[in-house]
């Protein structure tokens, strides 16, 4: 915040800052992973719903048409560096991790030449005595690079989502979606195990010789080996030969216990909720929140893609203001296909306003 042209508090020490509690996370009941790397493997790498939700938002931001104050600024932001699509990568990092660190690579004249998004889990914020970010440490293995946080021409532009428990690190959606991802993955593994066991509930071999004796260790191991030979979908219906004193006790599941499909669908909807994606766009059966895919796609852009794009573009424009005078970046709303119906409605309403002049109508539509 700037007061009378001077940044408030810059010359004074800020109040004591809390530690990076977001990196350890709030203790979560259950057995799902708590670290970012483990949650990333379970959610983005191992869960189709979470990965698709992230890709829908990130690819939408990456494909959004841009407008800016300088053609060179737009070209810098949309160019690929090392094969990396900057806006799509930054969007995914903000959704998953809550932080994005964009390194500004310079040419021989000191001008901004390329932008590259660093891995957020490898970056640590280094603060000065007043609590303000002074530098960023990027660690890869045993090597550490120190990148300055100069307010005029920074080496790293830090973008973050709101985190009420931390002053320097943002909060992503992985922690909120971890429980639903764990339930969804567990239901998937349960269904796979059910298919592996002849797609029907298992039973129990009951040893009842009548004298109260128990199986010896050798008998138990031999019987277990024989049971393994009869399990699997390929052995469905194959008869078993049981010795004396053994009887097969069939087991079944109650209708409530068999409702794992409903539990899995509820978990998938919760994952979609965490990432701000309408469940209809993820192919979840039975969802009727929106009337059709067109309405759901418009809601995705209005509620998820455009707000995230505005956060990223405003942050990049502010970070690159030292190289581009009055830097400005925004999504060109007139060229977004998903918003064509909204734009048509607006144009029809403005054109029908007979009390407005032609210049006033053009001004309402954002035309020069």
Summarize the structure.
The chain is α+β, with helices and mostly antiparallel strands and 368 residues long. Helix content is 40%, strand content 17%.
Count of β-strands: 14
Q: In what order do the strands lie side by side in the largest sheet? A: 7-6-11
Number of domains: 3
Helix content: 25-40%
Query: In one word, what is the shape?
Result: elongated
Strand content: 15-25%
Rounded to the nearest angstrom, the radius of gyration is 29 Å
Oligomer: single chain
Query: Which whole number gives the mean pLDDT?
Result: 81
Structure commentary:
The protein has 368 residues and is an alpha+beta fold. The protein has 3 domains: 19-198 and 255-335, no CATH class; 202-250; 341-368, no CATH class. The chain is built from 11 helices and 14 strands. The protein has helices spanning 21-24, 36-45, 48-63, 71-78, 86-96, 174-196, 217-229, 260-275, 293-319, 340-351, 358-364, and strands at residues 2-3, 6-7, 66-68, 80-81, 84-85, 99-106, 112-118, 123-127, 133-140, 143-148, 156-160, 203-207, 246-250, 329-331. The chain has a 3-stranded antiparallel sheet with strand order 7-6-11. Strands 8-9-10 form a 3-stranded antiparallel sheet, with no helix packed on it. Helix 3 packs parallel to helix 8 (260-275), helix 3 packs across helix 9 (293-319) and helix 6 packs antiparallel against helix 8. The two termini are 32 Å apart. Residues 1-29 have low confidence and may be disordered.
């Amino acid at each position: 915040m700037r007061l009378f042209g001077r940044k408030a508090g810059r010359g004074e020490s800020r109040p004591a800052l809390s530690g990076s509690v977001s990196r350890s996370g709030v203790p979560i009941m259950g057995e799902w992973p708590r670290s970012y790397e483990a949650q990333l493997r379970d959610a983005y790498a191992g869960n189709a719903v979470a990965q698709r939700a992230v890709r829908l938002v990130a690819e939408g931001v990456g494909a959004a048409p841009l407008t800016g104050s300088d053609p060179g600024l737009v070209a810098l932001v949309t160019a690929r560096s090392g094969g990396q699509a900057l806006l799509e990568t930054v969007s995914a990092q903000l959704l998953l991790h809550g932080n994005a660190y964009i390194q500004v690579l310079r040419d021989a004249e000191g001008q901004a030449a390329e932008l590259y998004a660093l891995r957020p889990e490898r970056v640590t914020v280094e603060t000065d005595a007043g609590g303000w970010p002074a530098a960023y440490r990027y660690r890869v293995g045993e090597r550490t690079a120190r990148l300055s946080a100069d307010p005029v021409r920074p080496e790293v532009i830090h973008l973050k989502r709101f985190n009420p428990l931390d002053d320097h690190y943002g909060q992503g959606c992985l922690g909120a979606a971890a429980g639903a991802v764990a339930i969804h993955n567990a239901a998937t593994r349960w269904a796979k195990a059910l298919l592996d066991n002849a797609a029907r509930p298992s039973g129990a071999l009951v040893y009842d010789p009548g004298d109260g004796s128990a199986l010896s260790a050798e008998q138990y191991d031999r019987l277990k080996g024989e049971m393994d030979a009869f399990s699997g979908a390929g052995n469905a219906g194959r008869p078993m030969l049981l010795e004396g004193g053994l009887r097969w006790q069939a087991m079944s599941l109650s209708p409530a216990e068999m409702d794992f499909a409903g539990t899995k669908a509820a978990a998938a909807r919760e994952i979609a909720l965490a990432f701000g994606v309408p469940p209809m766009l993820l192919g979840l059966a039975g969802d009727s929140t929106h009337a059709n895919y067109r309405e759901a796609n418009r809601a995705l852009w209005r509620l998820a893609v455009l707000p995230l794009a505005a956060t990223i573009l405003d942050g990049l424009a502010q970070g690159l203001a030292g190289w581009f005078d009055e830097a400005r970046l925004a999504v060109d709303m007139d060229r977004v296909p998903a918003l064509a119906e909204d734009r048509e409605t607006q144009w029809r309403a403005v054109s029908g306003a007979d009390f407005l002049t032609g210049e006033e109508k053009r001004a309402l539509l954002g035309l020069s």
